[in-house]
Automatic annotation (TrEMBL):
Cofactor: FAD; heme b
Binding site for FAD: 210, 226-229, 418-421
Enzyme class per UniProt: oxidoreductase
Protein name: Flavohemoprotein
Gene3D superfamilies referenced in this protein's UniProt entry, alphabetically: Globins, Nucleotide-binding domain of ferredoxin-NADP reductase (FNR) module, Translation factors
Keyword Transmembrane helix carried by entry: no
HAMAP family: Hmp (MF_01252)
Organism for this UniProt entry: Neobacillus citreus
Domain FAD-binding FR-type: 172-284
Gene: hmpA
Annotated binding of NADP(+), by residue: 297-302
Amino acid sequence: MSNTQIKEKNSWQEVVKTVKTLDPNKLEIIKATLPIVKDHGEQITKHFYKRMFKQHPELLNIFNQTHQITGHQPKALADAVYGAAANIEDFSQIMPVLERIGEKHRSLQIKPEHYPIVGENLLGAIKEVLGDAATPEIIDAWADAYGVIADVFIRMENKMYKTAETMPGGWAGYRNFVVEKKVKESDVITSFYLKPQDGKEIASYIPGQYITVKLEIPGEQYTHLRQYSLSDRPGQNYYRISVKREDPKGDNIPAGIVSTYLHTHVKEGDTIPITAPAGDFYLDLDTNLPLVLISGGVGLTPMMAMLNTTVNESSNREIYYIHAAINSQLHAFRAHVNDLAAGHKNVHSFVIYEKPSEDDKEMKNYDKEGFFSLEWLQQSLPTKDADFYFCGPEPFMKVVNKALKQWGVPEERIHYEFFGSFGKLEEIE
């Protein structure tokens, strides 16, 4: 699928024009109560999830429970509710963000029938957290506001479902894929090559997009869904995902259930149901500006798709790929990138190791020790007149984003993958 097709698919002017409007009196109530809802946002959404899962435990088959434990999901929902309500008079101002959420919803198979359940429990949580401050008039106004917001998502996602189902090789819901090959890329990252069980055509995608995998894990009460970026170029007869094994982080964050299961139990020949590719973070194929790809850790997965695609489709575009890892043992696809750089004069590779091993130091197989910095970036790149794409852990992305802004890179040339909150990186504490 070309960028032009994607842009046509994601033109939401019809959705904005046909959305329901809010009664002026209720709109004033929403505006007046936005600050208090924002102040209590995470408390409301944490209570919302507890309330909803108690009444509808079947929804635990959809939601990532690790994100509940870390507080990631409640914060993301709080930001989304506030952001949508704050822009309810003109959704066109936030359509790119609504699109990001809609793409995730489509990939997770969120359907229109889920919205009344969410609305009922969200309003209940607002009432229970705010107590007497949430008068019947306030709850009534927020009920109507939620109806408007839900209507936008339902209309937008209906278009997304139709596109995913009707495009060449597309499908509705989940489709079974067989693990044709399983390849260890580093001490913690393994690639899975997935081919359709039915042997038919598969949908194309734009590098940077992802799929959702669905796993029924023995001993687990609920189904587990996870979204993984596609890590190779489109146009082939397989999808590839490269999964980092998430080990425990302290006492509060356990090992990743899905990533551990994929690494230790899923074998070549096993079947995994997946949804069609989705996502609003993707490479612009309609420009010949120099391309700068910056990744940290497993954030290299969408970058690999972008790199492989650009090398395959454009012989002239200058490519600068910067990857940051702890050391070479945790650096996936190193040999592949080196081969591309050696075989293509327009491909330039840079490596940052936070804690290089003794072997790394002896081999001098990295360009910088420590961390990414603006000063080093300016010394390494010949120009800032380029398109920048980056992905990695949130702290890493904040550093990269801040550096690019300080260097004066225009916002329209800064692109990043951010699974989470409604706001921009620089707005997130």
